[in-house]
Write a structure and sequence with these properties.
alpha/beta, 16 helices, 50% helix
Length: 454
């Protein structure tokens, strides 16, 4: 009780006359029933009496309906999948009558104190549209597992969602964005904008922008109140990141008016969205950094080499700075960010070309997650040629350029040989990164030991 003073406000037996009713929504598409069962049970175990748990099945599966009946939660489906997750939630809103709505992904593991920590914030501030709780992951992603030096811990991996955690290190915590899971929203604010927006593939960020544009406030809770799972396979991680990238680009660039330079948002909110935009734009341009060392190796053979040391240092600084910022945003190590950058450079570049042609095009792809490790191993039958071929080609190109290096001329560019030493170090860094990314993509299976709390 000392750590949760709000328990006294809301009572521990029954619910008080002014305790708002909360609908808890669990949208699902293709997640296995055993994963859904765990999530439903944890949502039902949340310490709050005046709540209703809903399982929103977008694949109309008899097994999921049977699961909901056996667990005693509400079940809803619909005739089509129009609008993907946003459409699924909007369909459910017409069946709900709660004052507040909590949303959890199908792989979520909410804390029993989730509503005890979030409801009081909305009760205290009538202008607050939603609160977003901090989150952790309870398993390692494929890159973490690839570079790990020890078995995954038995407790949750401390990786907070970047868009929640980042705010505490930048400016006062009186606003937040929505991350799609582990948030509590006031129905009045949601109804005011006509439900969750369906024009983009990141309904969470889009929803936050729309309510904030209308003067509603938002608030992050940095305490971890919801655990999520990372994608199990490399290709699923790639698809997840591409969806996040394109969805953020749609909200931050394609929307009219957009949140970065249009009227209607406080200046500090614009700064936050501008920071997100710069981060995602940087990922789209990392393709150029990946091949910059080869350019400077070839430049050393020309008469312009002695004039390009400052340019090379600037480019290298930007390259290192970008990977460092990416690691901070994701709360990962620099080496994780380096492998991720090499692995995703081609995918982000292709996605940026597609976005330039059709900004609002695209479909919502559900990230495949198991949440818990099954017995044996998870077999990865796909070779992921979209990742392997570009990386193998790049590694071959790096190797050919490295074999053609004329060390005498490279080290003679300046009196101290700085140009040559720096560009060779840069070349080696990317050569190892590309090789590591290729090995990761060729990995055939993920042992079940990587999963915690299974």
């Amino acid at each position: 009780m000392e750590n949760y003073p709000e328990l006294v406000l809301l009572g521990t037996s029954g619910h008080s006359f002014d305790e708002p009713k909360v609908d808890i929504a669990i949208p699902t598409y293709n997640e296995p029933p055993e994963l859904l069962a765990e999530t439903v049970r944890l949502c039902q175990a949340i310490l709050y009496k005046n709540k209703v748990v809903w399982l929103l099945d977008d694949q109309r599966r008899p097994a999921v309906r049977q699961l909901a009946d056996s667990l005693g939660c509400r079940y809803l489906d619909r005739e089509s999948n129009l609008g993907a997750k946003a459409g699924n939630l909007n369909n459910a809103l017409s069946h709900m009558n709660g004052d507040l709505l909590a949303v959890f992904d199908a792989d979520a593991r909410p804390s029993p104190y989730f509503l005890r920590r979030t409801v009081p914030a909305l009760k205290r501030n009538p202008k607050l549209a939603f609160v977003q709780a901090g989150m952790k992951y309870y398993n390692r992603d494929p890159i973490d597992e690839f570079i790990a030096t020890k078995q995954a811990p038995a407790t949750a991996v401390p990786n907070h969602e970047l868009r929640v955690r980042l705010l505490s290190n930048v400016w006062p915590s009186d606003f937040s964005v929505c991350t799609g899971s582990g948030f509590l929203v006031r129905r009045q604010a949601l109804d005011e904008i006509g439900g969750f927006p369906q024009q983009t593939i990141t309904e969470d960020l889009h929803f936050a922008v729309e309510v904030q544009r209308r003067g509603w406030q938002s608030e992050p809770i940095y305490e971890s109140l919801c655990d999520l799972s990372c994608p199990d396979l490399v290709d699923d991680l790639r698809k997840q990141q591409l969806r996040w990238w394109k969805g953020n680009m749609q909200v931050l660039l394609a929307l009219k008016p957009n949140p970065v330079w249009s009227n209607g948002l406080p200046f500090k909110l614009k700064l936050m969205y501008a920071a997100l935009l710069i981060h995602w734009l940087g990922e789209a341009t990392y393709f150029a950094f990946l091949f910059a060392p080869l350019f400077f190796l070839k430049l050393a053979e020309t008469s312009l080499a002695k004039y390009s040391l400052a340019l090379m240092l600037a480019c290298l600084g930007l390259n290192i700075g970008h990977r460092w910022v990416s690691s901070v945003f994701r709360e990962k190590t620099f080496w994780w960010s380096t492998i991720f950058g090499a692995m995703m450079a081609f995918s982000f570049f292709r996605a940026s070309m597609d976005f330039a042609r059709k900004p609002l095009a695209g479909t919502f792809e559900v990230t495949k997650k198991t949440g818990t490790g099954p017995s044996g191993a998870i077999s990865n039958e796909r070779l992921h040629l979209g990742l392997v071929v570009p990386l193998a080609t790049s590694l071959l190109l790096y190797g050919l350029c490295g074999m053609q290096v004329k060390f005498d001329s490279l080290l003679a560019v300046d009196p101290y040989g700085l140009y040559g030493l720096i560009v060779l170090g840069w070349w080696l860094w990317h050569f190892v990164a590309i090789g590591s990314a290729l090995c990761l993509c060729l990995k055939r299976e993920i042992p079940d030991a990587v999963y915690a709390s299974a």
